[in-house]
Amino acid sequence: SFSFDGVIGAFAITNDIVLMALGLGIGAMYVRSLTVYLVRQGTLDDYVYLEHGAHYAIGALAVILLVTIQYEIHEVITGLVGVVLIAGSFFSSVVRNRRLGASGGERTGSHEKAEVSSGV
Known about the structure:
72% helix; 0% strand; 2 domains; flat
């Protein structure tokens, strides 16, 4: 969550380095807490294509970054590519879960929750 574009975005809001560090730190802790919560709840086990969609979105954003060296690509297109890929993977997971539920199959991992240490 602490990335170069986040730092540049923080400079657009303020030049106070303490406020930037505080804001980026709070954002990083929130994203980490949300990730740990979702892992403990087994969300990635229930929505099996969600992780793949996130990886495809990162790959697509990397390709867009390379294309922007030569051509101008509007920010709306860049944002929509990631949203469409992740939303598509979420809906594919929902359709898969409904098919498994209708056929009497058990969703993988829904009965076991992953244990995640805090790392501190």
